[in-house]
User: Fold this.
Amino acid sequence: MHRIFALLLAGAMALLVVACASKDQQSAANAPPIEQPPVKPQEVSPQDRARLHQEIAAGYYERGQFDISLKELAEAEKLDPTNFKVYGTYGLVYTMMGETQKAEQNFRRALSLAPNDPDLRANWGAFLCATGRAREAIPEFDAAIRDPLYKKPEVAMINAGKCLAALGDMQRAEDYLRQAMIASPNNPAAAYNLALLNYRQGDLELARTYMRPVMQQNNPTPEALYLGMCIEKKKGDRQAELSYASQLRNRYPESAEAKAIMSGVCE
Assistant:
């Protein structure tokens, strides 16, 4: 008797719990939704926005759209006048526009903010070399080359080699260009400049050897094709000479090099 009562009581309690749970669920379903606080969009700092404008400016610089690049740089400078990359990019743009005074002012401002940045030092060296201050440029290239964080040491090596060749220091120029070939095997820019250097020194066989990696690239430059033509002309290989000349005319018919073919003059 007591056992039966206990079972009935347990069953009644279970039904009560289920009923209460059902009522709770129904109440929860009918209850108005709890309002969540609005999610605030993550704020972008002026420094981040400046960095974005600078990166866009650098992209337009690489495409030769200097006017748009300058507009992006102006926006970046307003947002963060302490970003050295903004002034470094200004320097590159103004250099290509031929405004050397503005270029130098901006390079110097960038260097005052980041005197040890290897990319900046390499670009400053290239500017010095291009504006007739080759001897000042070499220490800048060396500083960039020594920096383990510099991702493209072969670029500074090639520029140093070209700079020294312009000074007439052919031995040191060749040393830098060979270093570039070690750092970046078969680099077409390094190979071209080594070919040019050896051609001017009269070593036509070595010049021809260095032309091979230059011609392995998909689109050799008109300067490279003209040099190849001149090497073969002086070597007396008429067929190879005509092959270079034909490629030059077909690929770059409006280039100064293609128009110079008729003159028959090689440096």
